[in-house]
Amino acid sequence: MMLTNPDTKYRPFSLGVNMSDRTWPDKVTTKAPRWLSTDLRDGNQALADPMDVDKKLMFFKLLLSVGLKEIEVGFPSASQTEFDFVRKLIEENLIPDDVTIQVLTQSREDLIKRSFEALRGAKKAIVHLYNATSPLFRRVVFNMDKPDVLALARKGMGLLVAEAAAQPETEWGFEYSPETFTATEPEFALEVCNAVIEVVQPTPLKPLILNLPATVEVAGPHTYADQIEWFCRHISKRDSVVISLHPHNDRGTGTAAAELALLAGADRIEGCLFGNGERTGNVDLVTLALNLYTQGVSPELDFSHMREVVKTVEHCNNIPVHPRHPYAGELVFTAFSGSHQDAIKKGFAAHEKRNDGYWEMPYLPIDPADLGESYEAVIRVNSQSGKGGIAWILEQNHGLKLPRPFQVDFSKKIQDITDASAKEVSGTDLWDAFQAAYHLTGPQAYELIEYDHKGPVRSGATRTFVGRIIKDGIETSVIGHGNGLISSAVRGLNSHYDLGLEVVDYAEHALNVGSESQAVAYVECRAGDRTVFGVGIDHDVATASIKAVLSAANALKV
Ligand SMILES: CC(=O)SCCNC(=O)CCNC(=O)[C@H](O)C(C)(C)COP(=O)(O)OP(=O)(O)OC[C@H]1O[C@@H](n2cnc3c(N)ncnc32)[C@H](O)[C@@H]1OP(=O)(O)O
Ligand SMILES: CC(C)C(=O)C(=O)O
Ligand SMILES: [Mg+2]
């Protein structure tokens, strides 16, 4: 049972810095940060079955296709697989010149040496060393005082510098993480990082990466932003350090934390695609990048092949991407509900009319096409749907532009189907239902064989419709007079079959689907107190209109 009194079990976060003069809330992000993917390290270490070399390579290639330039490829001292993967990348020359690989190590001499062994012969590499700095870890995990922790960081970074000097053929970069940064006293985190700066002696041309992780997310995103702004203000040699973020998502605010901390002065973000990673995951690079994109800022990452990205990541991680995952889930561009569909349909029409390129679409913050998605999934129909969505699908798939009263009529018929089935109706089902509802397929009481239309083509002149119609299996000749094709046909049908049909509205348009050019005609008819609708499709627009009248006549039989 849930405790009613968490205050006897949990303490509120209290290591915040005093930042009443914070400046980040007024800032705007105008350029992409440096990105590092840690899918192959932090993501991988969180999998029940870590990736083998083949999967790591597949993921690595995917990251290259997305445009990642810094990739943490593993923890080579952890296992043979991790070591072998780094060797493979180097020995088989699989790392493009503009890409830098990074590896992680603890501050332990044997592990550091093994990491450098793994990296031998690399053109460029970043060695990333971490040790936890927070009071809890000092007390419980390391049994160390602050000076011991400082010494551990200094010693490890000193070893990195020495090992790098012994392998001068590689262009080295160094990264230091005070693990559990957000839960560390800010002054102590600063002291450790300044000590590391003393050891590494970075310069603006050879900067040190200081990665400030929310190893476990323990406070709100605004607190992380304050911590980062405070750190940026106080760190020595700010021009010689790259401030990197590494948010995890324990409170579900990893993305917010990264975005606010970026405003607070950070230069670089480490995370994983779709937020894989320890526990609730690392911050999601896809969401961060596309959040920038939809603000008109190029993230310098390419997700125009999103389905392929999702498929590969799902395969390598053996974890599905949630159907509602921002930008990537299979349902995120889909509206089932009527008012959303109506707004989207109107949005697309307005977009086409405006033709200024700007994306202003109700309910769709990004153009699915930018992610390589079609518009097919944008509207799907179930019992929550309305006429607009149904009309959209018929227009997208079959080119039909149903007049509004026709939309209302067909939507009622679909509602009956979805209410009865409690299921989604596919585009194919919708088309089948349309053809059946308006007698384009299936048994028909009235069927046109051929017709002729005679008489002077002049305004007000009487013309004659002569048609051969099959009615309930019996062929009949139908003759009617009127001042137009439709009126003469309707009169003919009324006098032969006593239908009492009256056309109250008519519409037609060309139908270009595939290579075929056809015409479609719609009629709305009254017969006594009944209103029926008819549709006809033919290569010839006049024939389409006769078929539409017969379709309405068929509706009277139902
Ligand atoms: C927040 C993060 O993601 S940190 C990265 C975590 N990733 C991983 O751990 C994945 C790879 N790790 C591994 O495969 C293993 O932990 C190894 C190979 C690195 C080390 O394995 P082992 O030598 O068996 O050590 P094990 O992990 O059990 O214990 C950790 C020891 O290292 C110490 N340690 C932990 N972190 C660090 C560090 N950053 N620097 C120095 N020592 C550390 C611990 O205090 C403990 O010391 P103790 O044995 O004196 O108590
Ligand atoms: C190793 C460090 C950067 C880490 O993964 C974390 O603190 O979450
Ligand atoms: Mg991490």
UniProtKB/TrEMBL annotation:
Belongs to the alpha-IPM synthase/homocitrate synthase family. LeuA type 2 subfamily. InterPro entries: 2-isopropylmalate_synth_dimer, AIPM/Hcit_synth_CS, Aldolase_TIM, IPM_Synthase, LeuA-like_post-cat, LeuA_allosteric_dom_sf, LeuA_N_DRE-TIM, PYR_CT. Its main location: cytoplasm. Residues 33-307 form the Pyruvate carboxyltransferase domain. PROSITE patterns: AIPM_HOMOCIT_SYNTH_1 (PS00815), AIPM_HOMOCIT_SYNTH_2 (PS00816), PYR_CT (PS50991). Catalyzes the condensation of the acetyl group of acetyl-CoA with 3-methyl-2-oxobutanoate (2-ketoisovalerate) to form 3-carboxy-3-hydroxy-4-methylpentanoate (2-isopropylmalate). It is an enzyme of class 2 (transferase). Pfam families: HMGL-like (PF00682), IPMS_D2 (PF22615), LeuA_dimer (PF08502). The gene is leuA. The keyword Magnesium applies. This is 2-isopropylmalate synthase. Keywords: Amino-acid biosynthesis, Branched-chain amino acid biosynthesis, Cytoplasm, Leucine biosynthesis, Magnesium, Metal-binding, Transferase. Coiled coil: none annotated. It is found in: Cytoplasm. Pathway: Amino-acid biosynthesis; L-leucine biosynthesis; L-leucine from 3-methyl-2-oxobutanoate: step 1/4. GO terms for biological process: L-leucine biosynthetic process. It comes from Asticcacaulis benevestitus DSM 16100 = ATCC BAA-896. Gene3D superfamilies: 3.30.160.270, Aldolase class I. GO terms for cellular component: cytoplasm. One of its GO terms (molecular function) is 2-isopropylmalate synthase activity.
